[in-house]
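From the pipeline queue, job 12 of 40. The input is one protein chain; the requested action is below.

Action: predict structure.
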Amino acid sequence: NVNSLRGVERIGVVISFISFRSALTPRLDKWRVTWTEVSAGPPSIQFVNAEGEAKDFYTAAGFIPLPEDSLFADQIYVQLNNVLESTDTLTVQVLSDGSLDEETVPAVYNLQGDRIRYLTPEGLPAIIVTSPDSVFRNDGTMQIYDRDQLSTEFASISRPSEIVSDSILVVEGMLGQLHVENAQHQSISISQLDQRIYARVTGERDRSLNLVQQDSIQVSFFNPQTDDREDMRLYEIVGTSGQFDSGEFTSQNGVFLRNTLNYTINDGVLYARPGNNIIVEYQDNFRRTPTRIYVSIPDTIGIQMARALTCEVAPNPYYSNRGVNFRMRLGSSLGELTVEKLEIYNLAGERVAEKSAEDLVFADWGSNVAPRNQYGILNNWWNLENDSGDPISSGTYWVKVYAQVLNQGTDVTEKLNVLAKFVVIR
């Protein structure tokens, strides 16, 4: 029984000779003792996570989050290393310097490889409170203040001179807000190629642990269409007190959007094309899933394509059984475009279907209006049914677009229409 030998310095061996034949005298030929050496080392105690890994600080909330909640709060674990005791379970106390709460937790013996440790099997929940009236000792939950300090101490039973201790800071969790901005520090959800986009995080006060040392966090820019990725380091700015307590993190260097095949990851340039959607991601240490903001790059009309009204249908021909996005893009080089309705005709000139303005919302702009020299994209703009709700057959069709264009040169609104031919294969 190896566990029962913990802490034993001397082992006595008793050998009894037993024989069922009195004419024979048993003789011990040889004997041996086998053992496993475990390095005791200097004893220590520390605050850890559930896996026994050391923590720099704990994050807590004003409540205990459930596993299905989107927020995450740490639980308190204590680990004893290289403590040689003869019992399987020890008790340690966790004290709060600020709220004066006190909880006693068990630590269970665990031999991990050649390392002896005692670890609390269950985490001790922690709740941020603001009043001493909310503090209850030995109720199985630590009631503590924001920026409170926890301490723990252990005195060896077999070696009373071995007293070890540790302390840790507890910070109230704050949800940082992610912002994506242009060079003018305006929040954006749409950008253009050959421009820079910037990230900013505000309200992230649970990272401001050292008021005289500048903190930093990481934000990632990812283009799933090109698989390019740029990781940006944001640094905390000084608050009104002159210390790093603002909870606001920014970077002077934005990410440059460029349509180029010569790129590498984390080179400061994000490979992007017209129609791509950029993902900006930030992992808050108080949130289980990262915060994401999507920035779209609309298809643009070049200046050389000076057209009063442009309509393009893609893919063309459209195969309905392939499950691809049936897109139409509209734009004008004269001014702001407002699409009013679509009419769809078959090859015999018979009107098949009509779509009114309320059914025509551009994906990038959130309405039926597109700026000058920029495409408005209609996704899956037709369900391939006629006005009676019957599916149409394969064939060649025409779409007629009715729109208004506010001519930027004359400041006059012009009513325009255009025809586009496309093929449907079912």
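Job complete. DSSP finds no helices and 28 strands in the chain.
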